Amino acid sequence: MDALTLPGNLDALSPIRDYVKAAANTAGLDHTATYNLLLAVDEIATNVVVHGYEEAGLQGDISIAAKNEENRLVIELLDHGKSYDPNLHKEPDDEGLLKELSDRPIGGLGIMLAKDGVDDLQYQSTELENVHRFIVHLKPPAEAAKPDPTPAVLDDHRKLEILLRISKSLGLEIRLDPLLQLIVSEVTGAMQAERTTLFLVDRRKPDQLVSRVAEGVGAKEIRVLFGFGIAGTTAKMRQTINIPDAYNDSRFNPVFDKSSGFRTRSILSMPIIDQTGVLIGVVQTLNKKGGVFTKGDEEFLEAICVHLGIALKRAEMVDAYLQSQIVTKSLELAREIQMGLVPKDFPALPEFKEVDIFATIIPTFEVGGDLYDFFPLDKDRICFIIGDVSDKGIPAALFMAMTRTAFKMSAIASPDAIGPTMARVNQFLCESNPQQMFVTALAGILDLRTGQVEYADAGHEPPFIVQPSGAVVKVDKVGGIVLGFMPGQEFTSGTMQLNPGDTLVLYTDGVTEAMNVDHELFGAEAIEKTLLRTGHTDSEGTIKALLEDMGSFVGEAHQSDDITMLVIQYRGRGA
Amino acid sequence: MALDIQSTVNANTARIALSGELDGSTAPKLRETVDKILAGKPAQLVLQVEKLTFMASAGLRILIFAKQKQPNLKIYLVKPQPAIVDTLHKTGFYDGVFVTDAEPAGA
């Protein structure tokens, strides 16, 4: 119908109603539906005139247009007044409606009648205009839901249209949960059914189906074992099951009906299989309106299932990716915290001219179990440690943090000997180690006056000393068991002498066990070779040379362990 | 279609016969009539609405207005059309008025 435009005042109401009456008549609405629509449009038009124009001190037109769409009548009411969104307006609640007339709040009644009078009332306000859209389904759902003696038959053209729309809307939704909702409502609509349930194969228990979306049962999860019930049988046999009368089928389990109050009549249950032939889930649609599911329905649902398979597979991948992103993010955070625990500022200890210290940690899984630390005990002595927790990831990082803290506190509390310090750390770790982790470590106290190092070894790699001449010496192991393994263990210390210019090179097994693509290890010999080639240089230069050689050895291979190095060059007092 | 209003007062009963459509544009005139009638403090207000073909919420507001002005007033709606009865039900007004098929006894 051609649109009708009138001045926006109360005199417009009557002609607007006449227009709506004619439109409703053309669309074939019955008397009640027509009156309800009239009332709805009238109430909103009244609001537009009173609140949108008159009270706002504005003047303008009000236009009405009717559109007879496929199975609905749409009335559009346009105005240019102050925006007045009926959907934001509070309706009188039940309490308000039960009040004595004289106590009634006056507002909201019109809006309530307007919303009540149509199937949908939409509102849109732009800078140009305000649009109210009144939608009336020409075959109200309440009526369609009643059993109809003749089953609804869709022609091929209509089916193709629906299929195209489903494929398009599924294509737009990549997140799993909204996709599941969408599938359920699309299938219910396309199959002219009353309800649809979607089961997915549980990735953790691949012999179980779990329903994430079922209309009418709320958020309740339904779990079905393969082989049980209709859905479980569909999954197990990977075959479509079409049941005209559920209560006459022994596989049907009426327990869900009992708990939901729903009465299942006919069932069409179909496996969803992806392109590679893997079962993703089962779609089950219930109660064909006006009859039972036909062979044609089966074929149609089969065509829909192809799209479901693709969309579900993709959404599962997207969800898995997003999950891994969350894990990665928390690992990154953990790494930041862990890296905050080890000294990272170089040159380190600038007030101690006797030493030049440099260190690096390259963790594998963002957070690693390696550690190093160094700190002065007094003006003449510096304590250091390098260690490697037997595991990787967050548990190892927590154990590393514990070890580092226990070591530092213990060393500062009794700074005179490294052996007893290691024994105390060992005891502490043994007492708080539910996961049976352990730490290899080498720790020492360097006397800045003499260059003498008292060191203790808890199963760690032996360090090297690079002399000013370029000669490389491997430090003797003094022997000692890893930390956190055996309570009550004592640690015997050894001593080594650093002469001015000597460079002590400490490392973890991430260096020696760095692997190339042929699974060959870098090894202690390669460290020695690099140190010999590089000769005397400062602590940072030593580490750089080692990293470079390791890098060219490893090549394209993946880093398999944390890589940590601590290099201390003794310059002598008065350097 | 406009609203036609005919009112008479007889002893303690006020009668208003309505025909046509009661909407936002015609309600003010009815409200004026009701206001005038209530000045005489009738015990009951009888609205003869058989020929009222449309009633928007503006009509409901007049019922509220009358009740607020005179809380003990009995309001009768005589022979309302089914659609209007429906509106009364939906909004809960049905319980606040007397819907009858005939003039109340004693009126």
- In the predicted model, the low-confidence regions of chain B spanning at least 5 consecutive residues are none
Mean pLDDT of chain B: 88
Principal-axis shape of chain B equals: globular
The count of β-strands of chain B is 5
Judged by helices, strands and strand pairing, the structural class of chain B is alpha/beta
- Distance from N terminus to C terminus of chain A (CA atoms, Å) equals 99 Å
Question: Which percent range describes the beta-strand content of chain A?
Answer: 15-25%
- Rounded mean pLDDT score of chain A: 85
Largest sheet report of chain A: 6 strands, antiparallel
> What is the strand content of chain B?
35-45%
- Judging from the principal axes of the Cα atoms, what is the shape of chain A? elongated
- Report the total helices of chain A: 15
Strands of the widest sheet of chain B, in order across it, are 1-2-3-4-5
The percent of residues in helical segments of chain B reads 25-40%
SSE ordering of chain B: EEHEHEHE
The number of distinct helices of chain B, counting runs of at least 4 residues, comes to: 3
Task: Write a structural description.
- The complex is a heterodimer of chains A (575) and B (107).
- Chain A has helices at 13-27, 31-54, 94-98, 109-117, 141-144, 156-172, 176-190, 229-237, 255-260, 295-339, 393-413, 418-431, 509-512, 523-534, 539-554; strands at 4-7, 61-69, 72-79, 120-125, 130-137, 193-201, 208-214, 222-225, 241-243, 267-273, 279-288, 355-362, 370-378, 381-389, 439-447, 452-458, 464-466, 472-474, 494-497, 503-507, 563-570.
- With 575 residues, chain A is an alpha+beta fold.
- Chain A is 38% helix and 24% strand.
- Chain B is built from 3 helices and 5 strands.
- Chain B has a 5-stranded mixed beta sheet.
- Chain B starts with a strand and ends in a 7-residue tail after the last strand.
- The chains are: A alpha+beta (575), B alpha/beta (107).
- The A-B interface holds A 10-11, 13-14, 17, 31-32, 35-36, 38-39, 42-43, 46, 49-50, 92, 97-98, 100-102, 104, 106, 109-110, 112-113, 116 and B 1-2, 21, 23-25, 54, 56-58, 60-61, 63-64, 67-68, 71, 82-83, 86-87, 90-93, 95-97.
